[in-house]
Design brief:
heterodimer; A: 112 residues; mainly beta; 6-stranded mixed beta sheet; 11 strands; B: 117 residues; 7-stranded mixed beta sheet; 0% helix
């Protein structure tokens, strides 16, 4: 079983719709959770961090964490073509040397 | 926010050449930096953790004698790909975490695209 799992996609949504990206993780001691966006040929850039159960909103982005279900998601409201990218879920363990474990990423395509 | 600078952005060289990549934290001191490699259409794979003033910690399967890491100061880590061959062609990315942000995210450099002919 992979440590961090994501559906590779592509996930296609129309412009203006809500895009929902999901991630599950296997290690129950995981403490910190991150969503990164990676455009083709570029390095990842941080979108959201979340550390406790519940929702965290930042502009059009909402991260949701459920530690009991070992599940973290990212919602993108009012999706724009510029949101088209690969979204990487990353998980770290407190005391684990601050190492991040990445999922394989979900490719999002926002269509006009 | 925390800024990580990586140089060069692209390298094209002949097989057998050694290539050095620099990673700098610009507005914070990083006792730990991370080096990743990403092949096309794959996710980031951690190669090693660079520790300031001590030896790097390599992930399983990564040859420490081929990928030399030096972290001589709190703002600079270097990765040297020694005697590079075509199979070493990849996208190399460094990252660092601002130690002032407890459990905070890693911030990535812009990456180095290495092409070995």
């Amino acid at each position: 079983q992979k440590e961090v799992e994501q559906n590779s996609g592509p996930l296609s949504v129309p412009e203006g719709a809500i895009a929902s990206l999901n991630c599950t993780y296997s290690d129950r001691v995981s403490q910190s959770f991150f969503w990164y966006r990676q455009y083709s040929g570029k390095s990842p850039e941080l979108i959201m961090s979340i550390y406790s159960n519940g929702d965290k909103e930042d502009g059009r982005f909402t991260a949701q964490l459920n530690k009991a279900s070992q599940y973290v998601s990212l919602l993108i409201r009012d999706s724009q073509p510029s949101d088209s990218a690969t979204y990487l879920c990353a998980v770290s363990i407190t005391g684990g040397g601050n190492k991040l474990t990445f999922g394989t990423g979900t490719q999002l395509k926002v269509e006009l | 926010g925390a800024v990580v600078s990586q140089h060069p952005s692209r390298v094209i060289c002949k097989s057998g050449t050694s290539v050095k990549i620099e990673c700098r934290s610009l507005d914070f001191q990083a006792t730990t930096m991370f080096w990743y490699r990403q092949f096309p259409k794959q996710s980031l794979m951690l190669m090693a953790t660079s520790n300031e003033g001590s030896k790097a910690t390599y992930e399983q399967g990564v040859e420490k004698d081929k990928f030399l890491i030096n972290h001589a100061s709190l703002t600079l880590s270097t990765l040297t790909v020694t005697s590079a061959h075509p199979e070493d062609s990849s996208f190399y990315i460094c990252s660092a975490r601002d130690p002032g942000a407890a459990n905070g995210p890693q911030h990535f450099g812009d990456g180095t695209r290495l092409s070995i002919l």
